[in-house]
Write a structure and sequence with these properties.
alpha/beta; Rossmann fold; Arc Repressor Mutant, subunit A; 2 domains; 5-stranded parallel beta sheet; 43% helix; elongated; disordered C terminus
């Protein structure tokens, strides 16, 4: 199939292009920005696009996916990202229908990417494609509410309970309870001396694919 790649990291973009060609696909363009990706789609009218989620400040890969669908309603979309959950970046807009959300660390070999493209083009093919890790690729992730994800993100940013309460229009005791519920939801084991906020922040970075090099679950309260 004809495939468009939109990825702002030069090395990843080159690697994706090379991998897709090895799989026998025609890479019609490799774009580094959302604007260039949309223009390449308009000019080349690809069958599918493999795109990143995070393009820094401004529009996200989700916005690009919707733009591609407006331009080419039948285009297959594979979002390849290190983030287990888009809302970890503050993105609450849903993906277009039938888009495949593929977490980079679930891509063990080329067949996974090839399977994702197949399903992006024809969602009915999912039942016949065994190479695709279902949990990682089709969005069957642990469900957290938008509010829980936002609190998790604010904790990871280092916001105090008072600041989170102010931003979320909650009381400080409500924030404390919300963090405790997050620990339960994320199966975080807490014990004497453990700092729930640090544990939640560690979970955030782990889900985001960028675990911090230093963070102790027993930091002082």
């Amino acid at each position: 199939m004809q495939v468009l790649v939109v990825e702002d990291d030069d090395f990843t973009r080159m690697l994706l292009g090379s991998t897709l060609r090895e799989l026998g696909h025609d890479v019609v363009a490799e774009s580094a920005t959302i604007a260039d990706g949309l223009e390449a789609a308009r000019l080349n009218r690809p069958d599918a696009a493999v795109i990143d989620l995070d393009f820094g400040r401004g529009p996200s890969g989700i916005d690009l996916a919707h733009g591609l669908r407006r331009l080419l309603p039948r285009i297959g979309i594979v979002m390849l990202t290190g983030y287990v959950e888009p809302r970890l970046l503050g993105h609450t807009r849903p993906l277009p229908s039938a888009a495949v959300y593929l977490v980079k660390r679930s891509v063990r070999d080329q067949s996974v990417l090839d399977a994702a493209l197949t399903i992006a083009i024809d969602p009915a093919a999912a039942r016949h494609v065994e190479a695709l890790p279902v949990a990682a690729s089709l969005g069957r992730r642990r469900r957290l509410s938008d509010g829980q994800v936002e609190i998790m993100r604010l904790v990871a940013e280092g916001c105090s309970n008072a600041e989170i309460a102010h931003r979320r229009h909650l009381s400080e005791p409500a924030v404390v309870k919300a963090i405790a519920r997050l620990c339960q939801q994320l199966d975080i084991q807490t014990g004497p001396g453990a700092n729930q906020r640090v544990l939640v922040a560690q979970s955030y970075f782990r889900l985001a694919g960028t675990p911090p090099s230093e963070a102790s679950p027993h930091a002082e309260q």
